[in-house]
Amino acid sequence: MAGLKLEKFAGIVPRAGNSLLQDNEAQKANNTKLYSGELQAWFAPGELNPKITSIAGVQAIYKYRNPAGDDLWLQWSTDVNAVPGPIYALAENPLYYTGSGTPKKTNTTLATTGSGTYPRSYLEMGVPTPTVAPSVAVAGGSGTAESRTYIYTYISLFGTIEEESAPSPASSIVSVLPGSTVTISGLPAAAPAGLYNITKVRIYRAVTGSASTVFLKVKDVNIGTTSTTDTVAAANLGGILDAEDNDPPPSDLQGLCAMANGILAGFRGNEIFFSKPNQPHAWPAQYALTVEFPVVGIIALGSSLVVGTQGNPFIISGSTPAAMSQEKLPIYEPCTSKRSMAGDEGGVLYASPNGVVKIAPGFAGLSSRSLFTRDEWQPYDPTTMLGAVLSGRYYLFCANVSENFQGALIFDRNESASPLTRSTFYTTAATVAVTDASLYVVEGGQVKKWEGSQYEFLPYEWLSKLFILPRPLNFGAGQIQADFGDIAVAQALQQQLEAIIAANQALFATTTNFQSTLAWTPPLGQGLIAGSILTPLGNYEIDDRYVNLTVFCEGRQVAVITVKSNTPFRLPSGFKSGQWAFQLNGNIPVRHLKVAETSKELAGI
């Protein structure tokens, strides 16, 4: 046997035996970025500028951009789902969310009013329905009488957006002559308790006929006005009531998501609720659908809604909330974790007891079938998984107690040859920000950007398959082809950083005034008036670049070699083995690893 050449590095296939893997597949592939065929390390998550401190026990984060273009980081210690308002208001940026008590809404002003973590203030998502009918009395008039009835609604002011409640019960029917004055009394003396910002009452009247009753707007009065009059001629009435079914959402609504056509959806128990198009405060009860099993989570997929339940998944489709239809999918794959549900244009993914379920146009089933059996999957505890999808990669943060592993499974639909790797990075909260198409996570008490560091890495650990040879032999020579120039770059950067530190320390030793002034004349454009004369270090650290090779024979470690160049090197001699495995640890890109019995054979591979 001439030797082995490991290249086009691939990921893991847990369901396959260690010796039955393809030659480029791995028993272990942690923090391995394999999309070019090279073995590369992920950049570490990077701090934001300015730094964002995370709250204790954070479970949900959201990148909220205010009208000035500044980012505010909203955080919650509960499992929150937040979506922007379906009608974009440039000066307000309304945001609706569930999972933090009752359904809520906030905007730029509310989110920044008060103290503490964003969002600092909010309003309830819906507007309560008045429960008391108005009273009416008629005076004066002459001619042919008409029968009238009156109702009123609450008007909530959310920024500049008026949101209207469902109407009160109707008044008694009264007979009104032309020219009469109708006094409407019994209007609420105060807004109902709660964070609604109800500012007005809107009064409607209707002429009752044999066929139908249509309510038209009479006027608005300020909240607290308990009595008013109506002398408006029929020709001067306002628009038709369009809030008959503006029910507030259930107080325990969960899983808020945004569908097409300005429709929001949420769930409670085994019921799915829908808002009116472009009216996130209005959730007509008649729009609700019931599915067979308790709902775990929902994700929008175009004009459809994928529903993960404690039994079969469902797809609910429709362009209007009044005409939604549901389909029960014939797969027995319950959703084990609401927080595992995530999706993009390629479909919706979630964790089931058997693996990763994918629901997409033309496909519904286990997408991880070729990678896991239930036996390999269950130790990762799918009931606790947290998922996020970005650029076709499904990041599934989880823990495997049996392996003492806490991190993430990374499924990549773009890589058919290497769809699964792992990361040793773990987080309790993650979000994909649509404003910059980036993944954000929480680590070490801070919100960070995935792969946001320029010079720090998550070092890779790649363990080859177990090679069972036809006869025992000794691999005495090895060679790694890698970007060893990165080592010199890292050393130069480190020296530059150390030089800046030394120069600053020298200034500290000889200077008492560290503020720059006009008396100091730097090159044009390089001085900072009233700034510091110290050189900033930058918001980064520099990792050493390295690659280590560990050699195993029959499960026993026989060598650990730090490789610093593309030059061939010797491997331990004096023994032979028919079972070999090779592990690479480091952070510089590796193109291939070669091993052979002799240097001459090595050159021929």
Can you characterise this structure?
The protein has about 600 residues and is mainly beta. Among the domains are: about 130 residues, Sandwich (Jelly Rolls), CATH 2.60.120; about 80 residues, no CATH class; about 100 residues, no CATH class. About 5% of the residues lie in helices and about 40% in strands. The strands form twelve sheets. Strands 2, 40, 41, 43, 44 and 46 form a six-stranded antiparallel β-sheet that branches. Strands 13, 14, 15, 17 and 18 form a five-stranded antiparallel β-sheet that branches. The radius of gyration is 33 Å and the shape is elongated. The termini are close together. About 5% of the residues have low confidence.
C-alpha geometry: elongated
Helix tally equals: 4
Q: What portion of residues belong to β-strands?
A: 35-45%
Quickly name the level 1 CATH class of the domain at 3-44 and 461-486 and 543-603.
Mainly Beta
Helix content: under 10%
The mean pLDDT is 91
Largest sheet: 6 strands, antiparallel
Alpha carbon gyration radius: 33 Å
Oligomeric assembly: single chain
Secondary-structure-based class equals mainly beta
Q: Tally of extended strands?
A: 47
CATH structural architecture of the domain at 3-44 and 461-486 and 543-603: Sandwich
User: If you consult CATH, what is the topology of the domain at 3-44 and 461-486 and 543-603?
Assistant: Jelly Rolls
For the record, give the distance between the C-alpha atoms at the N and C termini, rounded to a whole number: 11 Å
Residue windows where pLDDT falls under 50 for at least 5 positions: 516-531
